[in-house]
Specification:
Blueprint (H helix, E strand, L loop, with lengths): L2 H5 L3 H21 L4 H20 L3 H12 L1 H8 L1 H12 L2 H4 L8 H16 L4 E5 L6 H4 L3 E6 L2 H7 L10 E5 L2 E7 L15 H12 L3 E5 L6 E5 L2 E6 L1 H11 L20
Parallel strand pairs: 1-3
Antiparallel strand pairs: 1-5, 2-4, 3-4, 5-6, 6-7
């Protein structure tokens, strides 16, 4: 094979290189700011050591690395499980994939939710409401008390009333029904979030980091309304903006939080 043959690159090669670069970039974006970056650096260091071992033909260490290589794929899946899950969620949000997902009219759910949230904000009643989209939330629903009731303003107000034993935790809505209350959600450990955020807001972000759910939060301290989607927290929005965000989130054709999100603070008071 001549140098000319090596340097001759076709369209397919260029496309493959670009695709690999794009995938690696997306993986980096998913891992950036998490402990997975340090783990990836550690794995690269191990590969570098293995290269040195092979170059100098170190028999004992070669045997050790051979055993390591046998379980390497399984170890990567276990270690990077959250990042792999988020990557699959990104693929699932692709418009081409979402064309195959049907959706029913959610206008009544939006109206009832906004009405309840507006009143809870005025009375500084803390609330955490998660809306299932394309990713199933069954594992989180099973941590709470099953309800199976239609979404209504009065029911939401009753659940989050301070003296109600169901108020502490999240309400999960799937379709037009409240599946469960007092649900336990994963808490985000992202270093990008303000240390002033409470567990309610961190739980909202934590769920949207791991699923494509849309979460509404009412601050018990200030009454501010916040929403979380795709791991981002948008704070201090109005009921009218909440109606728009929620309508878009529950629509299959939604392509993300609207442009006004970039002008909102991402720290909840």
């Amino acid at each position: 094979m001549t140098l000319f043959d090596i340097l001759r690159i076709g369209f397919g090669d260029v496309f493959e290189i670009a695709l690999v670069a794009f995938i690696l970039y997306q993986l980096y974006q998913l891992m950036r700011g998490t402990i997975a970056v340090q783990i990836a650096v550690g794995l690269l260091a191990l590969f570098a050591v293995q290269g040195v071992v092979l170059a100098f033909d170190m028999s004992v260490l070669s045997t050790v690395f051979n055993y390591f290589n046998q379980v390497f794929l399984l170890a990567v899946i276990v270690i990077f499980q959250p990042e792999i899950r988020r990557l699959l969620l990104v693929l699932g949000k692709n418009p081409i994939v979402r064309r195959f997902v049907s959706s029913s009219d959610q206008s009544e759910v939006v109206q009832e939710t906004v009405a309840a949230v507006e009143q809870m904000a005025s009375t500084q009643t803390g609330a955490l409401i998660a809306f299932q989209r394309t990713t199933g939330l069954r594992s989180y629903i099973e941590t709470g008390e099953p309800l199976g009731a239609d979404v209504s303003r009065d029911l939401l107000l009753t659940i989050f009333y301070g003296q109600n034993p169901l108020h502490d935790g999240a309400v999960i809505v799937a379709g037009r029904r409240i599946e469960a209350a007092r649900c336990i959600l994963p808490v985000s450990t992202s270093m990008k979030l303000s240390p002033q955020l409470g567990l309610r807001h961190r739980a909202a972000v934590g769920l949207t980091e791991q699923t494509d759910a849309f979460v509404v939060v009412v601050s018990e301290e200030t009454g501010n309304i916040s929403v979380s989607r795709d791991g981002a927290l948008i704070s201090n929005i109005t009921p009218e903006e909440l109606s728009t965000y929620l309508s878009n989130a529950l629509s299959v054709k939604s392509k993300g939080v609207t442009a006004t999100a970039s002008n909102r603070t991402r720290v909840s008071a």
